[in-house]
Amino acid sequence: MKMNDKNSQIKSRSNRIFEYTKTTPFNYVTRGIIKGAGFEDKDIDSKPFIGIANSWNEINPGHAHLNRIAEAVKYGILEAGGLPFEFCTVAPCDGWANGNEGMKHILPHREVIADSVELMVEAHSLDALVTISSCDKINPAMLMAAIRLDIPTICVPGGPSFWEIEFSPDYSGIDEKKYDDFNNKVKCVTCASFGACEIMGTANTFQCLMEAFGMTLPNAATIPAVTNMKYVLARNSGKQIMKLLENGITPSQIMTRESLENALMVDLAIGGSTNSALHLPAIAYEMGIEFDLELFNKYSKKIPTIANVYPSGNYGVVDLYKAGGIPAVMNRIKDFLNLDCMTVSGRPIGKTFRRSQVLDDDIIRPLNNPVYPEGGTVVLKGNLAPNGAVIKQSGIKDKGMLNFVGPAQCYNSEVDVLNDLALNKIPDGSALIIRYEGPKGAPGMPELLAVTATLMLKRNLQHVALITDGRFSGGTSGPCIGHVSPEAYVGGPIAIVQNGDTISIDIPNRTLNVHLSPEEINERLTSWKPIENPIKSRALLKYKKLVASAAEGAILKF
User: Fold this and answer.
1) CA angle 532–537–542, rounded 5-degree value
2) Lesser CB count within 10 Å: N end or C end of the chain?
3) Using the 8-state DSSP alphabet, how is residue 371 labeled?
């Protein structure tokens, strides 16, 4: 079958499948295999092959509905004249893994997912790509794969879930600190539907940042997971990928230095997860851009936290959707944004939200009445974290804890802290140091959600600061400082802090220090040896060998 120039152009990748074998009998073998998937010769020869990278599975409630989303995407692709080819990748659930050994295996998934999507697309010479994802590591991994491949790509976020508390008669927002009744507290962490946990944790943060990057259709991020509108958006995304393919619009035209700045500014405005300080540098690395963590401090002075969403505020992500979603947020901060950045809609991002309105000024606050006067996440430096540490300042409810001085109480694992918390051995006013939880030290840089959640429930511990070379759930609040770099395992100063050493935290001035002279730090380091955590997992051994510091986004270097 002869193809016109247009079809030849949009099928340039999938035509490679037959390029070297078209004059040999093997051509029929390859064709026969593709036909075995249920396709006819006329479609194979004339229609572009569109990959659908779906992270659906039945173990992750944030992803258990994505098979239905993929179905809608396929309809859109078929309507627009393409051939959809769905494949799945792994998608772990952080909630399952928190507080146990499983958490060491979560962050390494980011690279595995990005690699698997890249390898699957390249192995089958697909012409374009639709990604479907909801949760923490999977969203940034899809963006990493998209920029690597640089073929026409559109992202479809799975959307937020509903909490059980939203179906209670007294519901007025999901700030669980309002609810003294234990049953209500349980409702605030119980998923009532499929979708990403309905707080501004890492999952919803990066669905929002996908949109801020311009890699989704407008308003895609916050549409609830189980609504018909999500299905409609998925179908429209399937249609739109064909337009991107026809117009030759690829991620490198969308994911630029300017759109990266937009994503960072939106992250600060919504009080996004501290894990953004891992994933934005990793995405930038794939883009060939050096990302300095100081950018968080630079832009946090310009962009206030305006999304009144937990843990920075009192509402959920579904409430944010009802108030206008990310388009309304971007409209609020439009004077700071790069408005000419291209998007998958085919329009500059400034035009995608210019008609958006804020429908609730308490949920999306005006700039002159923010939830917090600066952006959510900032980076601290000092002799305890020479390369940086990360904290969500907008999540600190007790403003007296913005400046903290207290004695260190040191632990070499999360388990040891949990044991002492259970035995009430930690005095109020302590600076808890939890080390050997970094990318190499743990390995895998686990979240310490079990510790932060326990501290929140301990009414006798209201003035405790937490400092770690590990990381936190995006939903963590309070004076919790993570990503301390260099980490303990490689000889960072956090390794030689001793019980009783004085720790100073000054968030307004972005400093984190231990009251030791450089000479004393160096003297302690001369007699220091790293603690080796036993590792049986071959995957973790490989990760430990290749992973870089948290300050570089915990990327793999080889």
Assistant:
1) 80
2) C
3) S
Nearest alpha-carbon partner for 283 in 199, 346, 392, 205: 205
- Whole-angstrom distance, CA of residue 304 vs CA of residue 369: 9
HEC letters along 153-208: EEEEECCECCEHHHHCCCCCCCCHHHCCCHHHHHHCCCECCCCECCCCCHHHHHHH
- At 366 the pLDDT is 98
Q: Is 215 helix (H, G, I), strand (E, B) or coil?
A: coil
> pLDDT (tens digit, 9 = 90+) per residue, 346-390?
999 999 999 999 999 999 999 999 999 999 999 999 999 999 999
- For the chain, helix (H) and strand (E) counts, in that order, are 22, 12
Hey, what are 91's tokens?
């998608």
Whether 163 contacts 186, CB under 8 Å: no
Is 473 considered catalytic here?
A: yes
CB of 507 within 8 A of CB of 471? no
Distance CA 158, CA 130 (A): 12
Q: In whole angstroms, how large is the CA radius of gyration of the chain? A: 24
Q: For the segment 178-233, what is each residue's pLDDT rounded down to a tens digit?
A: 556 777 777 877 888 999 999 999 999 999 999 999 999 999 999 999 999 999 99
d(CA 334, CA 339): 7
Name the helix (H) or strand (E) containing 133: strand 128-133
In terms of Cβ atoms closer than 10 Å to its own Cβ (0-12, 13-18, 19+), residue 81 is: middle
Catalytic residue among 430, 473, 477, 485: 473
Tokens 């700030």 belong to 175
